[in-house]
Amino acid sequence: MSAADPGFGVYVHWPFCAAKCPYCDFNSHVRHRAIDQPRYARALASDIAAMAALAPGRVVTSIFLGGGTPSLMEPATVGAILEAVAAHWAVDGNAEITLEANPSSVEAERFRGYRAAGVNRLSLGVQSLDDKALQRLGRLHNAAQAIAALETAQSVFNRVSCDLIYARPEQTVSEWRGELARALKIAGEHISLYQLTIEPETPFADLHERGQIKIPLGEEARAFYQATQELTETAGLPAYEISNHARPGAESRHNLLYWRYGDYAGIGPGAHARLPLAGTEERAVYVGERQPETWLNKVETAGQGFSEYERLDGEAQADEMLLMGLRLREGIDPARYERLGGRPLDPARIAGLVGQGLLQRADDGRLMASEDGFIVLDALIADLAV
Fold first, then answer.
1. Quick one: which of 77, 95, 274, 364 is 20 to 30 A from 344 by CA?
2. Would you say 370 and 380 are in contact if contact means Cβ atoms under 8 Å apart?
3. Which CATH architecture has domain 8-258?
4. What is the DSSP letter of 332?
5. What single string gives the DSSP state of each residue in 178-199?
6. What is the C-alpha to C-alpha distance for residues 369 and 281, in angstroms, rounded to an integer?
7. Residue 45: in which H helix or E strand, if any?
8. Cis peptide upstream of residue 68 (ω within 30 degrees of 0)
9. What is the pLDDT of residues 166-201, one digit of tens each?
10. Cα(382)–Cα(243) distance, rounded to whole angstroms?
11. Domain covering 315-385, topology
């Protein structure tokens, strides 16, 4: 896959978690009764069939089972989902098939079952190597369990990633440097490092509003980001996206597809899809019903689970491509922006941002955020898109 040909992906959302983390605004839900997994697997297969009818004849280059906590699924459920994908689309022989997992010991025992079902890449939600921080983040594992799960994953899968959250309340840059250095020694080929943000309507947002937690801002946040880039570069896992780091060739192909503005199907509660509309220059956005039980009933009665639909004209697509593509170190092709939107980016505005040291031009014409540009990326994109 390449920037010019991002491929075609399938995202499958498993919305259930054992507990809701206080910083999380994802579409995840806690249920205190056992989930009827065979029933949900059948519904996901129906949703796959409906989405395949909207995007026939595509070759799937990546599948991502996200959540929620997909590692709460039985391997048989995962296998049924992957079989349904293969029943409706051709799946490339080298397709990347990722499953997100939490590092509890019970879930780690399932890793070999996921591998047998067809998963070939695992993304492990470590989040921290500090037990006190894990408790504050609402995680159900400790650091020792996370390390053991990572070792198990690496013994089963050739490709493994792990996630960490930094710039946490009361964390210092020095503490983060030590924690990240330890993580990089065991991380393997890929690591995702997310600076904590306070998301609306989460318990952390309420605590933040009342002044009970604070996160680094301004120059302090910049120091965390710069330390992250320094340590990952030195370890041979440079950033290829603002929050994602990998050894060359080990980048997440599925996530690259998003950032390169490729087409993808979205399956399950709250899942998003972006697919071209046949016979037009427009693209359609489909969003699944968020509430799992409502989604389940909708699929079982209507045969599909999406409840929102939006058409994107060329200008909207160009803006989305800019928003996603500038997150990547490789940047964007301005000619593609012009093809999509019917107008070029403003040369004077580009020159001004280059002059400010926020934007760079590659020899092949691509535009990329500089190191300083990545730190103010949202503002940079807003300025360029005007």
1. 274
2. no
3. Alpha-Beta Barrel (3.20)
4. B
5. HHHHHHHHH-TTEEEEEE----
6. 28
7. helix 37-54
8. yes
9. 999 989 999 999 999 999 999 999 999 999 988 898
10. 19
11. Arc Repressor Mutant, subunit A (1.10.10)
